[in-house]
Amino acid sequence: MFAATPLASGRCADVYALGADRVIRRNRDGGDVRAEAELMTYLRGQGYPVPEVFRADGPDLEMTRLAGPTLAEALVTGATDIRSGARILATLHHRLHALRARLSPDPAARVLHLDLHPQNVMVTADGPVVIDWGSAREGRPELDLAMTALIVAEVATDPTSPVAAPAGDLLTAFLAETGPIRLLDSAASLRTRTGPLDPRRVAQAAARVRTAHG
Ligand SMILES: Nc1ncnc2c1ncn2[C@@H]1O[C@H](COP(=O)(O)OP(=O)(O)O)[C@@H](O)[C@H]1O
Ligand SMILES: [Mg+2]
C-alpha cells in the first residue's frame, strides 16, 4: 500500500507521505488512534497548534504533512538556539494547560501531552506544531512539565548520546522558564512504566532534573 521507506519513524510509529500535503502515521503495534484523533481535532478547534486530522482508521492517522524540521533537528543545526527552544517548549505547555479539559469533570484537570519533547515538535513557517498525541491524558499540568524535564534529562545523562551536552543546556534553560518542577516523582514512576529506559536510568535522569535547578 505504501512505499517501503517511511518519511520518518519514531519509537512507536512510521510516518508515510501521502502526496505533498498529507501523511499517514501508522502505529507499529496496531493500536487504535481514534482517541488521539478526537483529541487533536478538539485541540485544533481551540486554536492549539496540531496537524489537521482527516481520517482515523485503526492504527492509521491521516493528517496534514508539516513542512520543517523537528525542534530536535533545529536545535542540532542551530536553526533554533537553546534558549528559544526552551521557550518554545514552555510556551506550548502553557498554551495547552490554559485550555479546558475535554473529558474530566475535575475543574483543575487539563489536557496533558506527556511526551512533549523536541522530537515531537515541528518547527513550521506558521510556528511550532505539536505531534505524537498517543500518550496524552488529562490531569495536573505539573506532571506534563515534569515529563518534559525528565525526558530531556534522559538524553542529558546518556553518555552515548551525541547530543547529551546540548540536552543538558536545554534542561537548564527549560527549568529557567518553568521554575521548580513539582511532580517529578510521579513523572519518574509513569516514565518507568511507559518509557524505553530501565528504572535505574530513569532515576538518574530524575536526579539530574533535581540538581539542574541549582
Ligand atoms: N504531520 C507530520 N508531518 C510531517 N512529519 C511528521 C508528521 N507527524 C510526524 N512526522 C515525523 O514522523 C516522526 C515520528 O512521528 P511521531 O508521531 O512522533 O511518532 P512516534 O510515536 O513513533 O515518535 C516525527 O518525529 C516527525 O519527524
Ligand atoms: Mg514522536
Automatic annotation (TrEMBL):
InterPro entries: AGP_Transferase (IPR051678), Aminoglycoside_PTrfase (IPR002575), Kinase-like_dom_sf (IPR011009). This is Phosphotransferase enzyme family protein. The keyword Flavoprotein does not apply. One of its GO terms (molecular function) is transferase activity. The keyword Transferase applies. Keywords: Transferase. Residues 94-154 form the Aminoglycoside phosphotransferase domain.
